[in-house]
Protein backbone atom coordinates (compact mmCIF):
# COMPACT_ATOMS: atom_id res chain seq x y z
CA UNK A 1 0.00 0.00 0.00
CA UNK A 2 2.85 2.37 0.86
CA UNK A 3 4.67 1.46 -2.36
CA UNK A 4 1.56 2.17 -4.40
CA UNK A 5 1.27 5.61 -2.79
CA UNK A 6 4.89 6.52 -3.54
CA UNK A 7 4.57 5.45 -7.16
CA UNK A 8 1.41 7.51 -7.49
CA UNK A 9 3.02 10.66 -6.08
CA UNK A 10 6.12 10.31 -8.27
CA UNK A 11 4.10 10.02 -11.45
CA UNK A 12 3.99 13.43 -13.26
CA UNK A 13 0.60 14.83 -14.23
CA UNK A 14 -0.56 14.07 -17.71
CA UNK A 15 0.04 16.85 -20.26
CA UNK A 16 -3.05 17.60 -22.33
CA UNK A 17 -3.03 19.90 -25.37
CA UNK A 18 -6.04 22.22 -25.04
CA UNK A 19 -6.17 22.75 -28.79
CA UNK A 20 -6.24 19.05 -29.71
CA UNK A 21 -9.45 17.07 -29.48
CA UNK A 22 -9.33 14.54 -26.67
CA UNK A 23 -8.87 10.90 -27.61
CA UNK A 24 -10.71 8.09 -26.08
CA UNK A 25 -7.50 6.27 -25.35
CA UNK A 26 -4.60 8.71 -24.84
CA UNK A 27 -1.25 7.17 -25.46
CA UNK A 28 1.56 7.60 -22.93
CA UNK A 29 4.14 10.15 -23.97
CA UNK A 30 7.86 9.76 -23.71
CA UNK A 31 10.35 12.41 -22.68
CA UNK A 32 11.57 12.71 -26.26
CA UNK A 33 8.08 13.54 -27.50
CA UNK A 34 7.75 16.27 -24.89
CA UNK A 35 11.05 17.88 -25.87
CA UNK A 36 10.31 18.02 -29.63
CA UNK A 37 6.73 19.19 -29.27
CA UNK A 38 6.39 23.03 -29.49
CA UNK A 39 4.87 24.81 -26.53
CA UNK A 40 1.61 26.72 -26.97
CA UNK A 41 1.97 30.30 -25.81
CA UNK A 42 -0.86 32.54 -24.67
CA UNK A 43 -0.46 34.67 -27.78
CA UNK A 44 -0.77 31.62 -30.06
CA UNK A 45 -3.86 30.58 -28.22
CA UNK A 46 -5.50 34.02 -28.57
CA UNK A 47 -4.66 34.30 -32.27
CA UNK A 48 -5.91 30.79 -33.06
CA UNK A 49 -9.09 31.34 -31.15
CA UNK A 50 -9.62 34.80 -32.80
CA UNK A 51 -10.03 36.37 -29.38
CA UNK A 52 -6.98 38.63 -29.58
CA UNK A 53 -8.11 40.59 -32.64
CA UNK A 54 -11.21 41.90 -30.93
CA UNK A 55 -9.33 42.79 -27.75
CA UNK A 56 -6.49 44.60 -29.51
CA UNK A 57 -8.90 46.23 -31.96
CA UNK A 58 -10.85 47.76 -29.10
CA UNK A 59 -7.66 49.53 -27.97
CA UNK A 60 -6.10 50.53 -31.31
CA UNK A 61 -9.18 51.04 -33.52
CA UNK A 62 -11.18 48.95 -35.90
CA UNK A 63 -8.45 49.10 -38.52
CA UNK A 64 -6.42 46.42 -36.72
CA UNK A 65 -9.20 43.86 -36.61
CA UNK A 66 -10.29 44.72 -40.13
CA UNK A 67 -6.74 44.30 -41.33
CA UNK A 68 -6.48 40.87 -39.75
CA UNK A 69 -9.70 39.76 -41.36
CA UNK A 70 -8.58 41.14 -44.72
CA UNK A 71 -5.25 39.29 -44.51
CA UNK A 72 -7.03 36.02 -43.79
CA UNK A 73 -9.67 36.32 -46.51
CA UNK A 74 -7.73 37.99 -49.34
CA UNK A 75 -6.72 35.68 -52.14
CA UNK A 76 -3.96 36.36 -54.68
CA UNK A 77 -6.53 36.78 -57.46
CA UNK A 78 -8.83 39.15 -55.51
CA UNK A 79 -8.96 42.82 -56.59
CA UNK A 80 -10.21 45.76 -54.55
CA UNK A 81 -13.63 47.03 -55.59
CA UNK A 82 -13.86 50.22 -57.67
CA UNK A 83 -14.12 53.33 -55.50
CA UNK A 84 -17.19 55.55 -55.95
CA UNK A 85 -16.83 59.16 -57.11
CA UNK A 86 -15.60 61.44 -54.30
CA UNK A 87 -18.43 63.16 -52.48
CA UNK A 88 -16.53 66.48 -52.79
CA UNK A 89 -17.01 66.64 -56.58
CA UNK A 90 -20.00 68.16 -58.33
CA UNK A 91 -21.08 68.58 -61.93
CA UNK A 92 -22.25 72.12 -62.71
CA UNK A 93 -23.35 74.08 -65.77
CA UNK A 94 -21.86 77.60 -65.87
CA UNK A 95 -23.10 80.50 -67.99
CA UNK A 96 -19.96 82.59 -68.66
CA UNK A 97 -20.14 85.52 -71.08
CA UNK A 98 -23.20 83.99 -72.72
CA UNK A 99 -21.63 80.58 -73.28
CA UNK A 100 -22.44 77.35 -71.40
CA UNK A 101 -19.68 75.29 -69.79
CA UNK A 102 -20.32 71.85 -68.24
CA UNK A 103 -17.56 71.09 -65.78
CA UNK A 104 -16.90 68.89 -62.75
CA UNK A 105 -15.57 70.91 -59.83
CA UNK A 106 -14.56 70.33 -56.27
CA UNK A 107 -17.04 71.87 -53.86
CA UNK A 108 -14.10 73.78 -52.33
CA UNK A 109 -12.97 75.24 -55.66
CA UNK A 110 -13.25 78.99 -56.26
CA UNK A 111 -14.69 80.50 -59.41
CA UNK A 112 -11.28 82.00 -60.25
CA UNK A 113 -9.68 78.54 -60.09
CA UNK A 114 -12.34 77.12 -62.39
CA UNK A 115 -12.01 79.96 -64.90
CA UNK A 116 -8.24 79.74 -65.13
CA UNK A 117 -7.24 76.16 -64.30
CA UNK A 118 -10.13 74.17 -65.79
CA UNK A 119 -11.55 76.37 -68.55
CA UNK A 120 -8.38 78.27 -69.49
CA UNK A 121 -10.17 81.64 -69.39
CA UNK A 122 -7.64 84.21 -68.22
CA UNK A 123 -10.24 86.96 -67.89
CA UNK A 124 -9.48 87.93 -64.30
CA UNK A 125 -6.24 88.37 -62.40
CA UNK A 126 -5.48 86.88 -59.00
CA UNK A 127 -4.07 89.43 -56.59
CA UNK A 128 -4.38 88.68 -52.89
CA UNK A 129 -6.55 85.51 -53.08
CA UNK A 130 -8.27 86.84 -49.93
CA UNK A 131 -11.06 89.02 -51.40
CA UNK A 132 -9.17 92.17 -50.38
CA UNK A 133 -7.75 93.70 -53.58
CA UNK A 134 -10.54 93.23 -56.15
CA UNK A 135 -8.24 92.26 -59.01
CA UNK A 136 -10.33 89.14 -59.71
CA UNK A 137 -13.68 90.98 -59.88
CA UNK A 138 -16.35 89.58 -62.20
CA UNK A 139 -20.10 90.12 -62.39
CA UNK A 140 -22.64 87.54 -61.20
CA UNK A 141 -26.20 88.50 -62.09
CA UNK A 142 -25.07 92.11 -62.46
CA UNK A 143 -23.27 92.37 -59.12
CA UNK A 144 -19.50 92.82 -58.81
CA UNK A 145 -18.00 89.96 -56.77
CA UNK A 146 -14.54 88.61 -55.98
CA UNK A 147 -14.13 85.41 -57.96
CA UNK A 148 -11.38 84.17 -55.63
CA UNK A 149 -13.85 83.96 -52.73
CA UNK A 150 -16.89 82.55 -54.56
CA UNK A 151 -17.39 78.78 -54.75
CA UNK A 152 -18.06 77.49 -58.25
CA UNK A 153 -20.37 74.75 -56.98
CA UNK A 154 -22.86 77.44 -55.90
CA UNK A 155 -23.09 78.92 -59.40
CA UNK A 156 -24.59 76.01 -61.33
CA UNK A 157 -28.18 77.23 -60.98
CA UNK A 158 -28.45 79.57 -63.97
CA UNK A 159 -26.51 82.59 -62.70
CA UNK A 160 -25.12 84.85 -65.41
CA UNK A 161 -21.34 85.29 -65.04
CA UNK A 162 -19.72 88.17 -66.97
CA UNK A 163 -15.99 88.76 -67.26
CA UNK A 164 -14.03 91.60 -68.85
CA UNK A 165 -14.01 89.59 -72.10
CA UNK A 166 -17.81 89.59 -72.23
CA UNK A 167 -18.53 93.34 -72.21
CA UNK A 168 -16.85 94.28 -75.49
CA UNK A 169 -19.28 95.39 -78.18
CA UNK A 170 -17.28 94.11 -81.13
CA UNK A 171 -13.85 93.02 -82.36
CA UNK A 172 -10.70 95.09 -82.22
CA UNK A 173 -10.08 98.38 -80.40
CA UNK A 174 -13.13 99.93 -82.08
CA UNK A 175 -15.34 97.34 -80.44
CA UNK A 176 -14.22 98.02 -76.89
CA UNK A 177 -16.85 98.95 -74.35
CA UNK A 178 -16.70 102.65 -73.37
CA UNK A 179 -15.38 101.69 -69.94
CA UNK A 180 -12.57 99.66 -71.48
CA UNK A 181 -11.75 102.39 -73.99
CA UNK A 182 -11.73 105.10 -71.31
CA UNK A 183 -9.32 103.15 -69.10
CA UNK A 184 -7.04 102.71 -72.10
CA UNK A 185 -7.08 106.26 -73.45
CA UNK A 186 -7.25 108.09 -70.13
CA UNK A 187 -4.38 106.17 -68.51
CA UNK A 188 -6.47 104.37 -65.91
CA UNK A 189 -3.78 101.72 -65.54
CA UNK A 190 -0.07 101.21 -65.06
CA UNK A 191 1.05 97.64 -64.45
CA UNK A 192 -2.41 96.31 -65.40
CA UNK A 193 -2.83 93.74 -62.61
CA UNK A 194 -5.80 95.56 -61.10
CA UNK A 195 -7.26 96.95 -64.33
CA UNK A 196 -9.69 94.14 -65.14
CA UNK A 197 -11.15 94.30 -61.65
CA UNK A 198 -11.54 98.09 -61.84
CA UNK A 199 -13.17 97.85 -65.27
CA UNK A 200 -15.74 95.34 -64.02
CA UNK A 201 -16.55 97.34 -60.87
CA UNK A 202 -16.94 100.51 -62.96
CA UNK A 203 -19.08 98.64 -65.48
CA UNK A 204 -21.39 97.45 -62.69
CA UNK A 205 -21.68 101.02 -61.37
CA UNK A 206 -22.53 102.57 -64.73
CA UNK A 207 -25.25 99.99 -65.35
CA UNK A 208 -27.27 101.55 -62.53
CA UNK A 209 -25.83 105.07 -62.17
CA UNK A 210 -25.65 107.08 -65.38
CA UNK A 211 -24.11 110.27 -64.01
CA UNK A 212 -22.05 109.32 -60.94
CA UNK A 213 -20.22 111.81 -58.77
CA UNK A 214 -16.62 111.28 -57.71
CA UNK A 215 -17.89 110.22 -54.29
CA UNK A 216 -20.14 107.58 -55.85
CA UNK A 217 -17.30 106.32 -58.02
CA UNK A 218 -14.98 106.02 -55.04
CA UNK A 219 -17.64 104.14 -53.09
CA UNK A 220 -18.31 101.72 -55.97
CA UNK A 221 -14.57 101.08 -56.46
CA UNK A 222 -13.76 100.89 -52.75
CA UNK A 223 -13.21 97.13 -53.00
CA UNK A 224 -10.49 97.54 -55.63
CA UNK A 225 -6.88 98.48 -54.90
CA UNK A 226 -4.38 99.97 -57.36
CA UNK A 227 -0.88 99.43 -55.98
CA UNK A 228 0.52 101.82 -58.60
CA UNK A 229 -1.65 104.65 -57.26
CA UNK A 230 -3.31 105.48 -60.58
CA UNK A 231 -6.53 106.62 -58.91
CA UNK A 232 -6.72 110.00 -60.66
CA UNK A 233 -6.62 108.31 -64.07
CA UNK A 234 -9.19 105.76 -62.90
CA UNK A 235 -11.62 108.46 -61.74
CA UNK A 236 -11.13 110.36 -64.99
CA UNK A 237 -11.71 107.21 -67.04
CA UNK A 238 -14.97 106.38 -65.27
CA UNK A 239 -16.27 109.92 -65.76
CA UNK A 240 -15.39 109.85 -69.46
CA UNK A 241 -17.03 106.45 -69.89
CA UNK A 242 -20.17 107.67 -68.12
CA UNK A 243 -20.34 110.70 -70.41
CA UNK A 244 -19.98 108.56 -73.53
CA UNK A 245 -22.67 106.16 -72.32
CA UNK A 246 -24.97 109.16 -71.82
CA UNK A 247 -24.44 110.05 -75.47
CA UNK A 248 -22.23 113.05 -74.90
CA UNK A 249 -19.27 113.97 -77.10
CA UNK A 250 -16.08 112.88 -75.36
CA UNK A 251 -12.50 113.81 -76.19
CA UNK A 252 -9.95 111.36 -74.83
CA UNK A 253 -6.39 112.34 -74.01
CA UNK A 254 -3.39 110.06 -73.81
CA UNK A 255 -1.56 109.87 -70.45
CA UNK A 256 0.93 112.68 -69.91
CA UNK A 257 4.59 111.81 -70.25
CA UNK A 258 7.02 112.90 -67.51
CA UNK A 259 8.57 115.55 -69.80
CA UNK A 260 5.15 117.05 -70.51
CA UNK A 261 4.26 117.15 -66.83
CA UNK A 262 7.39 119.21 -66.12
CA UNK A 263 6.56 121.76 -68.82
CA UNK A 264 5.65 125.22 -67.41
CA UNK A 265 1.90 125.75 -67.19
CA UNK A 266 2.08 129.05 -69.09
CA UNK A 267 3.09 127.13 -72.25
CA UNK A 268 -0.14 125.16 -72.42
CA UNK A 269 -2.13 127.63 -74.50
CA UNK A 270 -1.77 131.20 -75.73
CA UNK A 271 -3.98 133.81 -74.09
CA UNK A 272 -4.32 131.86 -70.84
CA UNK A 273 -3.22 132.98 -67.41
CA UNK A 274 -1.42 130.88 -64.82
CA UNK A 275 -0.04 131.51 -61.39
CA UNK A 276 1.58 129.39 -58.73
CA UNK A 277 -0.09 129.35 -55.31
CA UNK A 278 1.05 127.80 -52.03
CA UNK A 279 -1.38 125.76 -49.99
CA UNK A 280 -2.18 126.98 -46.49
CA UNK A 281 -2.03 123.34 -45.38
CA UNK A 282 0.17 121.02 -47.49
CA UNK A 283 -1.48 117.93 -48.92
CA UNK A 284 -0.72 114.54 -47.43
CA UNK A 285 0.22 112.66 -50.60
CA UNK A 286 0.63 113.28 -54.31
CA UNK A 287 -2.41 111.06 -54.90
CA UNK A 288 -4.48 113.62 -53.01
CA UNK A 289 -3.19 116.31 -55.37
CA UNK A 290 -4.19 114.19 -58.36
CA UNK A 291 -7.75 114.01 -57.07
CA UNK A 292 -7.83 117.76 -56.50
CA UNK A 293 -6.45 118.37 -59.99
CA UNK A 294 -9.16 116.19 -61.54
CA UNK A 295 -11.83 118.07 -59.59
CA UNK A 296 -10.50 121.52 -60.61
CA UNK A 297 -10.29 120.62 -64.32
CA UNK A 298 -14.04 120.09 -64.29
CA UNK A 299 -14.65 123.70 -63.22
CA UNK A 300 -15.67 126.10 -66.04
CA UNK A 301 -12.75 128.24 -67.11
CA UNK A 302 -9.96 126.04 -65.64
CA UNK A 303 -7.72 124.94 -68.52
CA UNK A 304 -5.05 122.98 -66.66
CA UNK A 305 -3.56 122.22 -63.26
CA UNK A 306 -0.07 121.22 -62.14
CA UNK A 307 1.82 121.28 -58.87
CA UNK A 308 2.95 119.28 -55.87
CA UNK A 309 1.78 118.55 -52.34
CA UNK A 310 2.77 122.15 -51.34
CA UNK A 311 2.03 124.24 -54.41
CA UNK A 312 -0.52 124.37 -57.20
CA UNK A 313 -0.40 126.17 -60.54
CA UNK A 314 -3.82 126.47 -62.17
CA UNK A 315 -4.22 127.75 -65.72
CA UNK A 316 -7.45 129.59 -66.47
CA UNK A 317 -9.28 131.43 -69.24
CA UNK A 318 -9.04 135.20 -68.45
CA UNK A 319 -12.32 135.86 -70.22
CA UNK A 320 -14.16 133.72 -67.69
CA UNK A 321 -12.07 133.81 -64.50
CA UNK A 322 -9.71 136.08 -62.64
CA UNK A 323 -7.32 135.42 -59.79
CA UNK A 324 -9.92 136.17 -57.12
CA UNK A 325 -12.32 133.63 -58.56
CA UNK A 326 -9.54 131.03 -58.84
CA UNK A 327 -8.69 131.55 -55.19
CA UNK A 328 -12.38 131.15 -54.34
CA UNK A 329 -12.56 127.88 -56.29
CA UNK A 330 -9.52 126.54 -54.40
CA UNK A 331 -11.05 127.56 -51.07
CA UNK A 332 -14.37 125.88 -51.93
CA UNK A 333 -12.49 122.70 -52.78
CA UNK A 334 -11.21 122.57 -49.20
CA UNK A 335 -7.64 123.62 -50.05
CA UNK A 336 -7.23 127.41 -49.64
CA UNK A 337 -3.99 129.03 -50.72
CA UNK A 338 -1.86 131.69 -49.09
CA UNK A 339 -2.18 135.37 -50.14
Word description of this protein:
With 339 residues, this protein is α+β, with helices and mostly antiparallel strands. It has helices spanning 2-10, 31-36, 42-48, 52-60, 62-73, 111-118, 178-185, 195-208, 214-220, 231-245, 258-261, 286-297, 323-332; strands spanning 89-96, 99-106, 137-140, 143-146, 160-162, 273-274, 277-278, 302-307, 311-316. The protein folds into three domains: 17-73, no CATH class; 89-245, Ubiquitin-like (UB roll); 262-332, Alpha-Beta Plaits (2-Layer Sandwich). It is built from 13 helices and nine strands. Helix 10 (231-245) runs parallel beside helix 12. It starts with a helix and ends in a 7-residue tail after the last helix.
Oligomer: single chain
Task: Give the neighbour order of strands across the main sheet.
Answer: 2-1-5-3-4
Helix residue percentage: 25-40%
Main sheet properties: 5 strands, mixed
> What is the terminal-to-terminal distance?
144 Å
List the total number of helices.
13
The overall strand count is 9
Poorly predicted tracts of residues: 50-74, 255-269
The domain count comes to 3
**Beta-sheet strand percentage?**
5-15%
Radius of gyration based on Cα positions:
42 Å
Structural class: alpha+beta
- Name the CATH superfamily classification of the largest domain: Beta-grasp domain
CATH architecture of the largest domain: Roll
- How would you state the average pLDDT, rounded? 78
Sketch the topology as an H/E string, one letter per element: HHHHHEEHEEEHHHHHEEHEEH
Name of the CATH first level of the largest domain: Alpha Beta
> What is the CATH topology assignment of the largest domain?
Ubiquitin-like (UB roll)
Q: What would the principal axes of the Cα set say about the shape?
A: elongated
Amino acid sequence: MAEDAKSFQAKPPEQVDPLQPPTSDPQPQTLKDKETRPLVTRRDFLVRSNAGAAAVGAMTGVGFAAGLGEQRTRSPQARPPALPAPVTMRRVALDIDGRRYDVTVDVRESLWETLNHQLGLSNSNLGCDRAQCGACTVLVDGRAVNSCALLTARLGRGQKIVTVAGIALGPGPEGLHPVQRAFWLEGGFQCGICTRGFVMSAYALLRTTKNPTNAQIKEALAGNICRCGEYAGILRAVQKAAAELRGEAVTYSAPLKPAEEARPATAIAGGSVSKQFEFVTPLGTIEQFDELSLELKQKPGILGVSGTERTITPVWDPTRLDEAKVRQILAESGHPVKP
